[in-house]
## 1
Amino acid sequence: MLNKTIYFLILIMGLTTAIGCSDDDSPAAQKSLTLSINKLEDVGANFIYENWLIVDGSPVAAGTFSVDSNGVLSETKFLMPAKTLDSATEYVLTIEPNPDPDPTPSKVHVLGGDFVSDNAEVSIDHSKALGTNFSTAAGNYILATPTDEDTTNENSGLWWLDPNPSTTNLFPSPGLTLPTLPEGWEYEGWVVIDGVPVSTGKFTSVSGADSTKLFSGTTSGPQFPGEDFLMNAPQGLTFPLDLSGKKVVISVEPKPDTSPDPSTIKPLEGTVPPNATDHLLYTMLNKDIGSENFGSVSRE
């Protein structure tokens, strides 16, 4: 009787072990999602990057990681059930709150790529990321200070507008041509003054005022992105100043934005000419960021 009892105990233990160790949990049934991605930024302690796999049209979470100030990823290999990883057709990278109470992807899709065999090249212009390579982006600006009555400091303001009337428009027109961004992203203008990037404000429309006029005067400015650098100068800078020779930038920023500096996604850049003339139209350069390589992911 004792031997029979022991036999049944051993049988039950064996079944329990077999049930507890499912095919998906065994090492042979797992594979690694391996990242080889560059040009990512530190998003701070309150946010984190998250991998997503698109399986049968739905997102499946595939691990989180942070990025330090040197662009080094905290983790590059993520174990996943082999069945899930092999079934994935696309990869998407998002920025999420940390901690994140929502099990679904945020609206801030940074990169995306299609799996071809066991690899996916990732880019910002993937349909599930920013969805554009910014090849059509163009920018023109003028120097002017429309927010005060002083006419002696006109080179201390920069506005993305075209002041020249045309046969169809007698008023200033937008100086920027930019694709519409998906939810979770916005543009930001910058002037780099003595190595210090100073924001001119964030915006989603090229034909409306941007988010702030922190440095402008007390008079209303034009309904276009731009800024006068007349007051509230950041530490180390003195306003008003001559923007001749300064670098100007249009960047693409996640929303919310955790960094005081421009992101690595800068579709337009330019340099104000030395001895620039106010109210003269100047042109920015398209930086062809769609051709930049952000890396790849693989399943191994």
## 2
Amino acid sequence: MVTVRFLNPDGSLATQVEAGPGSRLLEVGQAAGMPLEGTCEGQMACSTCHVIVDAADFAKLPPASDNEEDLLDLAAHVTRTSRLSCQITLEGFDSLTVRLPGAARNMQGR
């Protein structure tokens, strides 16, 4: 199992969950009630599942693709360790901490 800690924008713990290896962070977060919209349903066509990966955990992840980097340019409150949760597969490590950004941009225009 992989321990995933979701932090609020202020850094306080929102929730901690256990997820099976190979799970996608987007679905894990949604199942835990985190506000990860995932408008494109994980097809990497929006940036509504943006998270900020803890600096200590960032190196555990494979590099973002050029497409992911382009979509992160559309996200609010992007940092050096920002990623799209739909692109993070929970495997090869036993824990991951991510912080929710302070705001999100509504890609549906509502």
